[in-house]
Amino acid sequence: MKLWMPGEQLAYEAKEKETELRAAISALKRLGDGPHSLLLSAHYQRYQYNMQSLRPSNTSYGGGAYTAALSQLVFSAIAQATNQIEAFALLVKRHALASSAAAGGLRAAAECVQIALGHCSLLEARGLELCPLLLKLFRPSVEQALDANLKRIEESTAAADDWELTYPSTIARQSVRSSTSLCTSISYNHKLSSSAHRFNVMVQDFFEDVGPLLSKQLGGRTLEGLFQVFDSYIDMLIKALPGYMEEEASFEGSGNKVVGMAETEAQQIALLANASLLADDMLPRAAMKLTSANQSNFKDDTRRKVSDRQNRHPEQREWKRRLATSVDRLKDNFCRQHACFRSYF
């Protein structure tokens, strides 16, 4: 009886009917004989049999007909791999990525995608590149998590600030991330006010989470999103200038936050210190994690690593220039206010 034939013999029965084969494997499952391996082996043997069954014709057109038939057989099988990738991505998004992305779990989403890409990259070593398809399928979920994190940074930046410059040790206990990013932030040893310290710590954490996503071609979107968040923070600093109330209609992008006024000159200088240190030093340092993550992720692909590095540096230089332009808005408001003050007196 075929149900009790050895597993290897079943696998080599290439022309076995599908229903009969499934029944045999179902029975073998109770014996613990790896039914999935048997099924894959059976499909492979059937595939090999079909390829060997093709015979080239002796006519002058036989080569083309043979190539066409063989191509249809082989590439239709490869097309099934694409379908399997899509089904796989759907399951991962439904059971892992969807909840992480909706909750803004950027690190969890990145880890899910990175695990999948790790397995996919094993095929690249054998000449089959399916990673671009996988990235295309995962991209919407990852972008959702990315946007949720950027929004969280913007909403969590405290508007209630006394505008007193302190070292970062005063907010060390407030950091959710306890290891690398906090130590990195403290190592810069800059004096900032509490809102700027909070902003910096969250950005450091954000870049740690988003680092692996550079291979998914989200580096540009990441930098653009963070620029928008920083620009919103600059709006908040402008609102803290005493002369803001006269020009309130000009700044609608800063939301409904009630910002404490920087009444003294020292407090107003603290506003400039916050913006300048973040734009000139701390944010560009954090953005360098994108480049370092890119280099570590593609150690085995020299051409792609060199190309990405060449493209990334001009992009980051342009990003830093835009940060400086945003800071100039604060400086212009500061100078205009002090010019008006002096002309009044």
TrEMBL record:
One of its GO terms (cellular component) is exocyst. Residues 298-318 have a biased composition (Basic and acidic residues). Residues 297-320 are annotated as: Disordered. This is Uncharacterized protein. Belongs to the EXO84 family. GO terms for biological process: exocytosis; Golgi to plasma membrane transport; intracellular protein localization. Keywords: Exocytosis, Transport. InterPro entries: Cullin_repeat-like_dom_sf (IPR016159), Exo84 (IPR033961).
